[in-house]
């Protein structure tokens, strides 16, 4: 008889605790893991896909890391100070840090990365940088960020995937997206890029010149590309694979794999991201431009079914735009429960004539494909003429960046504070073709812009909360996107892979501390 998933998680947590009490770390060995799907590129900041973050968070670094309680920890910055007025942040960089090509990492790299590279390429960083008046390197190892006004979540902004440090000497004055070094990423992290055999494996090797004494312990990490979900599960079962990062096997396989001998599981490592699944809805044209249609979609979807059947009960059905892990959630809103009758009423009210719309599934595995099929069935049941159009990851990125869709699955990170991970989806000045990570739906509401912008810098928190409650009421009515699920993403691994999850981003930067007890 199979153990319930909750018992499997408890057993895994006990094993995880025992592992933490094991012998002193051992050096050597290569961990074999999986990346699913294969990332479109490895240059963080330029590419924001979750698979890119997972691999490249071990190549690149930010100024800070974050604990599972979202407390900032030193990384490339060894210390920092905040002025009494909350406007000046001074970061003191570690000395003796080098890029993987041997060049010195300096404060000028920080200024270039933040003020040039990310302002051009990175929508999540841009949302933070709009509060920054100036960035100055006062010497080789000191950087001063001066804000236009206090911005409460500023210290939560410096994780590697959001404020990646990139080498100025390789990118300054170039066409960033066509830079020759994009095929061989150069970071400061504990592992160096070695080889990418497309469709097969991405190989990282130990950075022998890493500045943190004794780290990393591992000789390397191999990220295998195995397109078929069943084959990924088999590879873990036969011990070809040591670590299954979240989302690399189908959810229906997790309970069985968690019961195996020498298998541990943890749900830690996603506190910083708070992954939030959404249904992009094109607000520009067609039936989806009418908020009554978007409301009908919300009422038509059976999100509890998706959670219980497709996601093994992991995660939560969100109330609205703010997930339960985000600060300032307005829990007085009326939930969009599964109500097909109400959906039909709204469609009749708007005069929907059966015009065909399309859904783009997220090409991240069978669970997402099944989810798209379930939503398609829900929508057809209320009279919406809908078809799915499957794409690969590159095609999905392209179509969303070009706004060539009606409905499309995605998930974004909420980053613990609405000013960091939520507002970017709804602010009208974050509408820009070419990215699947900004205001892709094309939602424009002047009052929403005012509220988000004012709340980001309001003081104290009670004032922020008032503003965020009002903005949630408006979004709840307008339904710019469909709010699907606060995702629960466990990581499975061999119990002899020690100390794997040591921060709020999990394996994205965890391999620097990991070691093999073999």
UniProtKB/TrEMBL annotation:
Signal sequence, start to end: 1-22
Record's keyword annotation contains Signal: yes
Any one of the GO BP annotations: peptide transport
Lineage of the species this protein comes from: Bacteria, Pseudomonadati, Pseudomonadota, Gammaproteobacteria, Oceanospirillales
Protein name: Heme-binding protein A
A Pfam family: SBP_bac_5
Taxonomy, superkingdom: Bacteria
Cellular component, GO annotation: ATP-binding cassette (ABC) transporter complex; outer membrane-bounded periplasmic space
GO molecular function: peptide transmembrane transporter activity
Family membership: Belongs to the bacterial solute-binding protein 5 family.
Keyword Lyase: no
Keywords noted in UniProt: Signal
Residue ranges occupied by any Solute-binding protein family domain in the UniProt entry: 71-428
């Amino acid at each position: 008889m199979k153990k319930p998933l909750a018992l499997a998680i408890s057993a895994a947590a006990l094993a995880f605790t025992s592992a933490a009490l094991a012998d002193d770390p051992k050096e050597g060995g290569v961990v074999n893991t999986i990346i699913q799907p294969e990332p479109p590129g490895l240059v963080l900041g330029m590419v924001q896909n979750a698979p890119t973050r997972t691999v490249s968070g071990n190549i690149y670094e930010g100024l800070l890391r974050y604990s599972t309680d979202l407390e900032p920890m030193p990384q490339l910055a060894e210390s920092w100070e905040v002025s009494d007025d909350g406007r000046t942040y001074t970061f003191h960089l570690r000395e003796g840090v080098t890029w993987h090509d041997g060049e010195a990492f300096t404060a000028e790299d920080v200024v270039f990365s933040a003020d040039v590279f990310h302002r051009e390429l990175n929508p999540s960083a841009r949302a933070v940088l709009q509060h920054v008046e100036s960035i100055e390197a006062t010497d080789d190892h000191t950087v001063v960020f001066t804000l236009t006004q206090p911005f409460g979540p500023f210290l939560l902004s410096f994780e590697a995937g959001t404020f990646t440090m990139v080498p100025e000497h390789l990118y300054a004055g170039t066409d960033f997206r066509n830079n020759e070094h994009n095929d061989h990423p150069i970071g400061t992290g504990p592992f160096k890029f070695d080889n990418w055999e497309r469709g097969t494996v991405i190989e990282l090797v130990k950075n022998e010149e890493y500045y943190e004494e004794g780290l990393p312990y591992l000789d390397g990490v191999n990220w295998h590309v195995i397109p078929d979900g069943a084959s990924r599960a088999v590879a873990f079962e036969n011990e070809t694979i040591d670590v299954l990062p979240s989302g690399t096997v189908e959810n229906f396989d997790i309970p069985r794999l968690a019961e195996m001998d020498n298998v541990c599981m943890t749900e830690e490592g996603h506190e910083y991201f708070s992954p939030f699944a959404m249904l992009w809805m094109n607000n520009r044209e067609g039936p989806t431009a009418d908020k009554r249609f978007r409301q009908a979609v919300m009422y038509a979807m059976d999100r509890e079914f998706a959670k219980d059947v497709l996601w093994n009960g992991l995660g939560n059905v969100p109330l609205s735009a703010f997930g339960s892990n985000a600060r300032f959630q307005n829990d007085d809103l009326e939930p969009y429960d599964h109500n097909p009758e109400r959906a039909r009423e709204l469609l009749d009210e708007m005069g929907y004539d059966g015009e065909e719309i399309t859904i783009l599934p997220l090409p991240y595995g069978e669970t997402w494909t099944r989810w798209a099929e379930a939503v398609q069935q829900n929508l057809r049941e209320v009279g919406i003429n809908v078809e799915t159009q499957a794409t690969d990851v590159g095609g999905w990125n392209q179509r969303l960046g070009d706004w060539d869709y009606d409905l499309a699955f995605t998930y974004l990170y909420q980053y613990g504070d609405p000013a960091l991970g939520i507002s970017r989806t709804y602010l009208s000045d974050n509408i820009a073709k070419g990215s699947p990570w900004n205001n892709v739906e094309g939602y424009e509401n002047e009052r929403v812009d005012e509220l988000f912008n004012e709340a980001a810098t309001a003081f104290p928190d009670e004032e922020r909360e008032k503003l965020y409650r009002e903005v949630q009421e408006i979004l709840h009515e307008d339904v710019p996107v469909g709010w699907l699920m606060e995702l629960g993403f466990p990581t499975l691994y061999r119990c002899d892979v020690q100390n794997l999850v040591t921060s709020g981003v999990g394996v994205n930067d965890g391999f620097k501390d990991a070691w093999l007890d073999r």
